[in-house]
Input
Amino acid sequence: MQARRDGRIAKDLVAASAMPLVLAILDEGESYGYAILKRIDDLSGGEMEWTDGMLYPLLHRLDRLGYVEARWDSPPGGRRRRYYCITPGGRVALSEQRRQWQVVSGALQNAWHSFQVANFALSTVEG
Amino acid sequence: MESTLDPSIEAQIREWRAYLLRRRTVHHVDVDELEDHLRSQISELGAAGLSADESFLVAIKRMGGVDELSREFARERSSQLWKQLVLAGGSVRERPGSEYAGLLIMACFATGAAVAFKLPATFGIDPFATGTSDGASVDADASFYLRNSALLALPFLIGFLAWKRGLPVRVVAGLGVPFIAAAILVNVFPFERGGDTELLAAIHLPIILWLVAGVAYLGGAWRADAPRMDFVRFTGEWFIYYALIALGGGVLSALTVGVFEAIGIDVAPIIASWVLPCGAVGAVVVVAWLVEAKQSVIENMAPVLTSVFTPLFAVMLVAAILGMALTGNVIAAERDVLILLDVLLVLVLGLVLYSFSARDSDARPTLMDAVHLVLVVSALVIDVLALAAMLSRITEFGVTPNRMAGLGLNVVLLANLVWSAWLLLAFLRGRRLFSDLERWQTAYIPVYAAWAAIAVVVFPPLFAFA
Output
């Protein structure tokens, strides 16, 4: 994991985006807890700060909701590890989440854009 | 397990595991999974150049606080909401107060129940006293207790639970309404002494009142499904504890009588008229308190009991079906057979319900679920055969209160088991979630209350109080 830095993503945002993020990662292929967290780290450039343990209750919830399936894998000589893969129900939930996030992100983009335009206009007047 | 780590780190990991496991909401599998994570993290940090000690500390820190973690697991397992009651902090349904105060209040309610139960004796109603009154009045007294026992004992259970959950007065008053209504009905109805309708009302009334107590147990939140399952679990555990205490009480009483007999003092009348009735009624409250206080003990016992008896019952029923098929003998349409079958169905449903309530609803289908299916289906087969025989008997000999009650109960249970079997099958084939099964069972609970209410309120006038 990358070094911690200030100006991290706020806790609420991390919590809200956790489920679609985990589902999207599992959509890429079967994975396990530690690898999922590494992948989140990669995807966010280390900006998203998780308390590692909190991933596991979330994975349980996804399992209970039927969005993912879990299985234990115990390689000979190695320690056993729990793998998760996404279910068809999980894919449906993911696409719905994705639609909602796109709406949110689109609205924000529009808001930033008009903000930028206003800023630009202001600065040209001042200049 | 790989043990490439420093022995001192291994020891620390073991300690951390044990610490996590002490939290009852974090299961063994969760800890295994978290440990895998911890070890991955440690080995990566070690590869990046940190010492073993440093890696361990950083990995533990990133894992997050144990309190926070166990609370998150508890919240996630909302179906096991009752465990949150014993978690430090984060509890909303528990009234603050030391354990000692709880014990004292419980003792007050238990004593209150015992006093209320013996109160009718001051008006001369005392079927427990021996040799003081003639046969007719003993019969009348027994009939009074037959109808009113639950009405005397259960208000104190509700009072205790209401105190424990901090129920508002308005809710408690609402819970009192069915008690008052029932008390008026069963004492105003002109029952024929020793008649069937009186006995039926006496059997069904406690069921209604117990479900009313359930509302108090759930702190008024009886509409939601998951808490209702907690009440099912509570009922099963209450039953087991009560049986254990009754057994112990019986042994103690017998020994007491024996010991005093040896020194020439006859204590049997005191035991029979005071100790046994008061103990039996007081135990209703004491056991409820025990179940609440000692949940973790029972938690180990209940799944064991159900997983021992579920396969045994399934084998018995399958053997009975095989016996019928091989010999060609069908079920004899006798009067007692209907009762026997009702008891069988109640037991099967009880076993299934109770093991559902003790089951981790996240778990995948197991062999035990298949055994449940065998149990339910074979009970259904036997029941359908018997019902057919019984219907022919009713059309031949007419309707009596007993037959009607037996038949009605049979239909109520049959409907539940048919749909349960269907859902179980779908669950085993991966088409349904286990929570669908739980939801069906909890949604069905009001049907029992409705049926019991019919047996108490409608049957007596319908059959002219015979």
